[in-house]
Amino acid sequence: MANLVNLDRVSKGYGAVGALLTNVSLGLEDTDRVGVVGLNGAGKSTLLRMLTKQEEPDEGRVTHRRDLRVAQLPQSLTLHGDATVRDVVLGTAWLDEGFGAEHEWAGDAGVRAVLDGLGMGHLGLDAPVGPMSGGERRRVALAALLIRESDLLILDEPTNHLDVAGVNWLAAHLLKRRGALVVVTHDRWFLDEVCTATWEVADQTVRAYEGGYAAWTLARAERERVAAAVEARRQNLLRKEIAWLRRGPPARTSKPQFRIDAANALIADVPPARDSVSLTRLATSRLGKQVYDLEDVTLHAGPKEILSDVTWRIGPGDRIALLGANGAGKTTLLRLLAGITQPDAGVFRRGQTVKAAFLSQELHELPGHLRLLEAVEEVARRVQLGDRELSASQLAEVFGFTDKRLWTPVSDLSGGERRRLQLLRLLAAEPNLLLLDEPTNDLDTDTLASLEDLLDTWPGTLIVASHDRYLVERVTDTVYGLLGDGQITHLVGGIDEYLTRIGGTPTTPTATTKADKSDKSDALSAADVRAGRKELGKLERAVSKLEQKEAKLHEQLAANATDYGKVAELDAQLKAVQAERAEAEEAWLELADRLGDG
User: Fold this and answer.
1) Which of 272, 281, 237 is nearest to 400 (CA)?
2) What's the domain of life for this entry (predicted)?
């Protein structure tokens, strides 16, 4: 491993905002893949600009290895309006001249693969950039970075404007790419899949953790539990998040380096994330038996056919995810369900008790002339969410708005804050059916966790169109796909089945951490896997017995506290048992990692 970048006691602030980073020291090596997380406005983009020397620190020093090649995708970028895809991707219409001219790349077969992977395969190299949407222009710029070699690749929200397949492809591509990576993203599945380390930007500092989003969540909860420095509401939210992580795909939690029993202790008394039976019962009582019935429905978006003679029924308490490529018609279908548009043919019926709320991708419906709290109270002063009654200010707090922000004019809010307010107003109206179109846009990871916590206990019908794999797996129970054939396809296997059907490949195995000292062994035979699982069972039983033995020794120590000779004897036994248990746990972790069962 070679060191690429060092930040030495760096501080940075801005006049209107104040200090963002204070006395930060970090190092970046050539094999690091770092995910940067933190609240909106905490200083993540500022940190990236310091890493690339686009901005100088107010104090401290940033040093680069000599001849370091840095490629960066910023949050906002400007492409020449008269440039073509060829100019941007193969030439120098946007990037620094140092990356090389067109002739060095024109023959590279990987160029077409990159464009296809990012969903740009339909564009010719001579297509002009000027008429493209913002999302298409961003994908063209991302393609330009990915086809070039660099020592350090820095990406600010690279998954924006990518569908599920595009995010999956990008993760697989980055896992195979040589060189260091630093990425800011709110896509938690992507962080887990790609990153081997996490930098948390908060409180004017940067904390470094091993592993992706799951490891960071567990480590942060452990740190806060030990410190006992956070209020009960926030701690309970983190513990619920951990319960979800531990119940989800096993690979999520295979990498944290602290004791696995500490994580288990945190979630020992946490109830299931959702009681589906109770929620369905509540939803039935609120919604009635009928929500939506589509019979032989045909639906177009302009000249493009979205649905062709489709029959689909949605019941009370259903929690549905809609998947599809950009342009597949997810928004058009949601607009039909919201009653904004009508089908071209067929019958569309909505239950009489349905009270729908539609979260669009636009922000123009917010009242810019009001202050934040007034905008919430305009809808409702008190809200009943599941078994909780909240005031307008309490609901605002759940969505990350502190007392200081409650009286901020809506027109002065950032894009992420406006998105949060939009969601807040929808829930304040107490609907019994939510239609969410890309609800995670512009939301940071903490706000997403708060939103998911609310949706876990929300007893209505939920239909979500999202490319955020983590959100889909967390808050929905059923997945349907728009695959371009005019039908709504039930995907029993969820996102993995969707990727298989469209020709993608799930990214396996997940990213390894820096603690993995050697490459994984070749694929195990079926016999090896069976033997390994049998050994895992033995180790689990051994750990359980040692835990019981350790507990009895603690009891005996307490009972013989005044007998110093007995205490010394029991203490020696306890240390031996603890060492044996640690050894068994380590063996379990290593074997589980080999089998992919972490």
Assistant:
1) 237
2) Bacteria
